[in-house]
Amino acid sequence: MAMAGLYRRLLPSPPAIDFASSEGKQLFVEAIQNGTMEGFYRLISYFQTQSEPAYCGLASLSMVLNALAIDPGRKWKGPWRWFDESMLDCCEPLETVKAKGITFGKLVCLAHCAGAKVEAYRTNHSTIDDFRKHVIKCSTSDDCHMISSYHRGSFKQTGTGHFSPIGGYHAGRDMALILDVARFKYPPHWVPLTLLWEAMDNTDETTRQRRGFMLISRPHTEPGMLYTLSCRHESWTGIAKYLVDDVLLLLKSEDVKDIQKLLYVVFKSLPSDFGEFIKWIAEVRRQEDGGRSLSQEEKGRLAVKEEVLKQVQETGLFKHVAEFLSSSKSCCGNIPILSKEDDLPCVAASVCCQGAEILAGNCGSSRGYCCSETCVRCLKTNGDKPVTLVSGTVVDGPNEQGLDVLVPSRQMKLSCCGCDPSNSIGMYPASNDVLTVLLFSLPPKTWSGIKDNKLLLEINTLVSTQNLPVLLQEEVLHLRRQLFLLKRCQEDKVDEDLGEPLS
């Protein structure tokens, strides 16, 4: 019996010009000579084919993130951290993307959550002249890349909406190079920039919004190095609504006179599973991968995390939060994030189990892991300052594996303690600094309903990002972007409004 199948497509030319054709090669050489192929080299080094027919957005994004050398912060396979389509599993479930693809707004949200700096433009919020300027900017630099969302019909190609990175620009012919991630269908090809604009200036039938383009770059510092918001837990939609909408209404309805009462109003009604939404990031590795030494890369990342922690704990806002949590009026048992112990061995045991799931490729599965024991110690290497290391043995049925958790901490009165988890290692991330960062990350309008002018001035001064150290400022603004976009996802409006509140 015959079996039907498709092997590639003939690229309609014109309007496109095959990159590997004689004319395509000539365009490439001329563009190199004119300096508008600088972004090409990094992109081509990580060029990939989408692994599913509807994964063009995920493939384009993972390709760009790898080209920018953005660290995903978790392992892909074996010991390797690497962006793969399967790693882009927040904002929209992978099964949904596999069945329906991903919208422009959701891909923007996903890029933010992955740690990139993103500028997104729909065609009705931009012009072809601005688009050309952005194409030239990305083509003459290797630290910014563009992903275009367009309709294939404008190029006489089969199919509808599609995402692909733009790999270069030919100024003389005003043509852009599309690095088509559907390489099983069409090869990379040059297209007239005016026609590409026309292909983007098309309404997506799913969202009723215009298509467009996004510029993706590496932030000045690594965002989300210590804290992140998670949309993997099923309760995130309610928590995002509480933080953005409900806190504002609560402060309008209450007669708040001082900071401690304000904190009580904000924290008393936190959803019960709030601790699943904002997390601090601990790095996990197999014990056999590192032994008792740290690589330079690990030392560098840990140093950044520790500096962010230090900067949080030196803010005036942190002192108010710490005072609140230690006071009788906080009723600590009623604050959801405090319902889980901040005891380091308990936290580390949980992180070890999460790490085991990630390393086994079972992230988010119901498969059971148990951390049978943890051992907290100070690790000194080559005269460096001590670092906090928690070792755990994770049991999965008959199998066991040893994991290390590298814990960012502020070294206080240290004594290298061996394996007694009751001994004090230092101030590692806990409820007080997590809640402090959360308050920094709330939209500035949150405090506008406060009736007492003196209190309003005080809280605006405390939460202002203007005078924060650069590392902490980047961290806070990244979380604020995440919260904004997650709230838009919760409202199913992320495709309507791509703006982002930064101040």
Instruction: Give the C-alpha Rg.
Output: 25 Å
Total of DSSP H or I helical runs spanning 4+ residues:
16
The main pleated sheet reads as: 7 strands, antiparallel
Which word captures the global form? globular
Give the helix proportion (percent range). 25-40%
What oligomerization state is this entry in?
Answer: single chain
Query: How many separate structural domains?
Result: 2
Which residues form runs of ≥5 with pLDDT under 50?
Answer: 413-425
Classification by helices and strands = alpha+beta
Count every beta strand, where a strand is a DSSP E run of 2 or more residues.
15
What proportion of the residues form beta strands (DSSP E)? Answer: 15-25%
Q: What is the H level of CATH, i.e. the homologous superfamily of the largest domain?
A: Phytochelatin synthase, N-terminal domain
Q: What is the terminal-to-terminal distance?
A: 65 Å
CATH class of the largest domain: Alpha Beta
GO molecular function: glutathione gamma-glutamylcysteinyltransferase activity; metal ion binding
Function: Involved in the synthesis of phytochelatins (PC) and homophytochelatins (hPC), the heavy-metal-binding peptides of plants.
EC number: 2.3.2.15
Keywords: Acyltransferase, Cadmium, Metal-binding, Transferase
